[in-house]
Design goal:
Helix content: over 70%
Number of helices: 3
Number of strands: 0
Oligomer: single chain
Largest sheet: none
Structural class: mainly alpha
Order of helices and strands: HHH
Length: 65
């Protein structure tokens, strides 16, 4: 039968291995491109908003002109 200390040790080892797995996943070269794209999303929104604003004003000028 498993005592409490053995269970605690097993849980600690499993959680530590999970932690190492997450670290590896976060720092792996395969994930870098996806994380870089996600990091630049706020800037892409600003560019789209600017393009939309400029495009919207020219469309209004064409309607009135």
């Amino acid at each position: 039968m498993m005592d409490v200390n053995t269970l605690r040790t097993l849980i600690t080892v499993v959680l530590f291995l999970s932690f190492l797995g997450i670290i590896y996943w976060a720092w792996s070269p395969r994930s870098k491109r996806r994380f870089d794209e996600a990091a630049n999303l706020p800037f892409a929104d600003e560019e789209l908003a600017e393009a939309s604003r400029l495009g919207g004003s020219t469309m209004q000028e064409k309607k009135h002109g």
